[in-house]
Design goal:
The chain has helices spanning 4-8, 22-34, 37-44, 48-62, 78-101, 118-131, 233-241, 251-256, 286-292, and strands at residues 67-69, 74-76, 107-112, 134-139, 154-158, 167-175, 177-182, 193-195, 204-207, 226-230, 247-250, 262-268, 273-280. The protein has 301 residues and is an alpha/beta fold. The strands form 4 sheets. Strands 4-3-5-13-6 form a 5-stranded mixed sheet. Helix 2 (22-34) packs across helix 5 and helix 3 packs across helix 4. The radius of gyration is 21 Å and the shape is globular.
């Protein structure tokens, strides 16, 4: 069966085609989440050649290319996006069912990237008391904190939800932005407050995966030069500490990660960062819906 939707399970029966096993789907979802065979192999604790063979076997069984691979990047094809969006919630529900069958207490997996907002942490005790369920925190350095791969049931998302993502979101709050600089950098030396527009004069270090600030936030024709990019928060932090350029991050996130070679400067007139909770658009876990319901509607997406 070559229809990729059937690989995720037709709506009527959700039956996998012959030859597709759970290990194939879990391997594919890990790569789809990390967009890196190396990182996905580390997460699954398998060798990269084994992971590559497993994903290739899935593609051959389905008769569809799921991933575009080059020496520099991995990207999902259109078929890969459809398969990810269909399969991730199914495997998440399957895992929950298996845990329940083993008499384990129900667990909500709450995903985040670099820092769990206080508003979420404060709601966890009330959620546990109301449902009797546990809460497991899951950190993933991906735009949706592992939600689309089924690594979590509900996720904290800072900034905009990626276009086309099959999720529903609710606005929780806004966080102010703060500038992060190398301690010995001459730029903005001695300044405690800087206007947002002034940052256009300095090279910018951008976290392209979970970051919330890029040159496009400034007016066209008055944008900072891109100094370098990083694909996770720790690399971004070290690049700023090394003096490659100025970084900008939500204030709670930046201040939580202290570094002896960094200093923080308050920003004036900077656009705030939206913080949302997101769940899959379809087949969201009932516990995720319950947790989401503890927050008042600010905005839906």
């Amino acid at each position: 069966m070559n229809d990729v939707r059937a690989a995720a399970g037709a709506e009527e029966g959700r039956v996998f085609p012959e030859g597709v096993e759970l290990r194939h789907l879990r391997a594919f979802l890990a790569v789809a989440d990390e967009l890196s065979f190396t990182h996905a192999a580390d997460r699954l604790r398998v060798g990269q050649p084994t992971l590559t063979r497993t994903v290739r076997a899935l593609e051959e069984t389905l008769g569809a290319r799921l991933l575009d691979r080059t020496t520099r990047r991995v990207a999902l094809t259109e078929a890969g996006c459809r398969l990810r969006d269909e399969v991730a919630p199914l495997l998440s529900r399957l895992d929950a069912t298996l845990r329940a069958a083993g008499s384990e207490p129900p667990v909500l997996r709450l995903g985040f990237t670099s820092l769990l907002p206080g508003a979420c942490a404060e709601q966890v005790p009330a959620f546990k008391a109301a449902t009797g369920a546990g809460v497991r925190l899951v950190r993933r350095d991906t735009p949706l904190a592992g939600l689309t791969s089924g690594a979590c049931d509900i996720a904290v998302v800072r900034g905009d939800v990626p276009p086309g993502a099959a999720v529903r979101s609710r606005l929780l709050l806004h966080e102010p932005r703060i500038a992060v600089l190398a301690r010995d950098a001459p730029e903005l030396a001695g300044r405690r407050v800087v206007d947002w527009a002034e940052l256009a004069d300095f090279p910018l270090v951008v976290n392209t995966v979970t970051g919330t600030t890029g040159p496009e936030l400034w007016p066209e024709g008055r944008r900072p030069r891109l100094a370098c990019t990083a694909d996770n928060f720790d690399e971004w932090l070290e690049a700023v500490a090394a003096g490659h350029g100025v970084g900008v991050a939500p204030e709670p996130v930046a201040r939580r990660h202290s570094h002896p070679s960094l200093r923080y400067v308050r920003l004036k007139n900077a656009p705030p960062v939206a913080v949302r909770l997101a769940v899959p658009a379809r087949d969201a876990h009932p516990l995720a819906e319950r947790f989401l319901g503890q927050f008042r509607d600010g905005s839906s997406g």
